[in-house]
């Protein structure tokens, strides 16, 4: 699935020239083993490489990962890509948090070097569950033992708890401040604005999303708790694991302030999204992984926090993901990878599940 119209060789040449400064290299830097990670990166351009330069007559090598904001012509998934904010969030989590993030190398937020802003970090060892194809169809997590999968499930909850424990997130990350407004309302308003932005070129309304927005408004949570740092894209596919333990937490482009349940709902729903795809293909998938009751119970045990009105946040996760999926569908159409669906709801791969969630007929797995 394409995310850019830029040439990878051109990007790597420009990045190599820029890296001399951040790496404090005495001479030119070259990039070798340049590759795009398989099965990941649905919104921005991510590529991996080895940076090499000479120092004292010897070749130094440092594995790197670069994230480049997509150009406007490639139908980006989000209205804006604030890589400076992502960089600052990762830096704050590294300094004050309890979860592992890759060491940061540098950022060009101007876009002058490559034509788009980018950030560079160390490439960390480990592997993550795949997105494309989803990990429910096979791979190391699928092949793991039940105890090993449970270790990944619980460790992922621990990552969420660690992110949510970042002290004074609004002070440490003023760009995330809601200016005294309710954090959930601000988060929700950005989601509705994202939906309206996605309609800017075709004006198309998606009934299943608009019905769900109305449902969410009518059932607004009574008590949202103290806002915390919300990771945003909170799922195992954005974590590198070694020996079934987190080694690095990645992809902070959806970070914001908000209730803890935003991340918990996203984690649970995104697994069910993949599991529903597997079951529709008559593949067993991983029905016992990341079940809602297990995730909630583990989080409450780890933190002492009582999760509130979780059904609302599960619908909200499905809506947020629906907005993202509708824009990904538009981009696939733009690149000739998808025929436009006749029904607007067809732009949302999980439109049937979202409809059942709103109607209260979605069948969640039980223990």
TrEMBL record:
Q: From what superkingdom does this record's organism come?
A: Bacteria
According to its UniProt record, what is one Pfam family this protein matches? APH
Boundaries of every Aminoglycoside phosphotransferase domain copy: 82-270
Q: Which InterPro entries does this UniProt record tie to the protein? A: ACAD10_11_N, AGP_Transferase, Aminoglycoside_PTrfase, Kinase-like_dom_sf
Q: Which GO terms describe its molecular function?
A: transferase activity
The identity of this protein, by name, is: Phosphotransferase family protein
Recorded source organism is: Amycolatopsis acidicola
**What does the record give as the organism's lineage?**
Bacteria, Bacillati, Actinomycetota, Actinomycetes, Pseudonocardiales
